[in-house]
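Quick one: structure tokens for this chain, please?
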Amino acid sequence: MAEEHSLCAKNFNFSPPLSSPEIVVAPPHTAEKVVVEGNRCLVCRKKVGLMGFKCRCGPTFCGTHRYPELHACTFDFKPMGRETIAKANPLIKAMKLEKI
């Protein structure tokens, strides 16, 4: 019997196939996701090659659309700037002088 089956008997499942196959219906897509290549501008789809500008909101842009105002950037720069300034300028307190 081991010669009949060339597969390993430990890993091979000898059970017969199911009598009725199960049909699974996938839910309809409500929103299509746009697939963007890393070497094209998100706004004008121009090839950017090595000169692409990666924005903090995620996608890559060409030289014309690299500024946040020109591509409707969703990244909030104010909290990040406040954190950077707070780390760079710690609060320094001088020791109190004793009264004479």
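The longest helix spans residues 77-88.
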